[in-house]
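Researcher: Sequence of Ribosomal silencing factor RsfS follows. Predict its structure.
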Amino acid sequence: MQNEQLVKLVIASLEEVKAKDIVTIDVRGKTSITDFMIIASGGSARQVKALAENVLEKVKAQGVKPIGSEGLDGGEWALLDLNDVVVHVMQVETREHYDLERLWQGAEQSRAQHDEQGAE
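Model: Prediction complete. C-alpha cells:
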C-alpha cells in the first residue's frame, strides 16, 4: 500500500469513529522515523481507544502490519506505528499540552477534509 493510500485509509478510519481536528503532517526530509504523522483528538479515554482500535482493524484488513502501538490501555494518548505513517490519537487536553503540531511546524500540514470520504 502506498503511503498516500495509507494516509487516506487512516483518516477515513478516524472519521468513521468521529475523531476531531485530524491533521496530517508530512515529515519527509525532517526525520528518518516516518514519512507522515497523523494527529487526531478524541473526547474521552473510551473514544481515544475506539479510534485507535478502529484504525488498527482497518489497516490490518488491508494487509498493513503495524510495527507497534502504545497507550491503548490508558486512553489519554494512543500511538500507532504503521512504519511510514505514525498516528497519534489524544484527548484534547493532552494534545494541547504536547502541541505536536507546533513541534513539527516546519513540516507541511493539512487538515483532513470530511468530504473526501464521500468522494470515493
